[in-house]
Amino acid sequence: QVQLVESGGGLVQAGGSLRLSCAISDRTFSSSVMGWFRQAPGKEREFVAAITWNGSTYYADSVKGRFTISGDNAKNTVLLQMNSLKPEDTAAYYCAASTSFRVSVYVTDAYSFWGQGTQVTVSS
Questions:
Q1: How many CA atoms lie within 13 A of 21 on its CB side?
Q2: How many whole angstroms separate alpha carbon 108 and alpha carbon 106?
Q3: Per-position pLDDT tens, the chain of length 124
Q4: Shortest CA distance to 68 belongs to which of 59, 89, 93, 90?
Q5: Closest CA to 5 of 121, 119, 116
């Protein structure tokens, strides 16, 4: 069973930056899509960003222009660079992987594998 392990969360002031990393335990694992989602207390888990097997990227409107998703094949990781952070970005951030094609990258049901999450807190 493949495991996804997130790291890089923490406390940052508004306007600051953080870089989240998602390490994939199985180097032979081949995903169709890798995504990042987030969940704030009392709210549903929401889509943040995704990158497909051929390098296409997708972003939620709320993070476009501020967040960048990328894959590091050599290290078997997926990165989420977060700049110009806002207090409303505060949430637990989850890495997810899908092995299905022709799915909507925006919905949680498309992903079969999930990490445990890493907390991001942005102070005003």
A1: 10
A2: 7
A3: 889 999 999 999 999 999 999 999 988 888 899 999 999 999 999 999 999 999 999 999 999 999 999 998 777 899 999 999 999 999 999 999 999 887 899 999 999 999 999 999 999 9
A4: 59
A5: 116
CA dist 81 → 15, 21, 41, 70, 117 (Å): 13, 9, 22, 8, 16
**Which residues are paired to 38 by β-bridges?**
46, 93
Q: What is the DSSP string of 40-89?
A: -TTS--EEEEEEETTS-EEE-TTTTTTEEEEEETTTTEEEEEE-S--GGG
pLDDT at 28: 83
Q: Which amino acid is at 57?
A: T
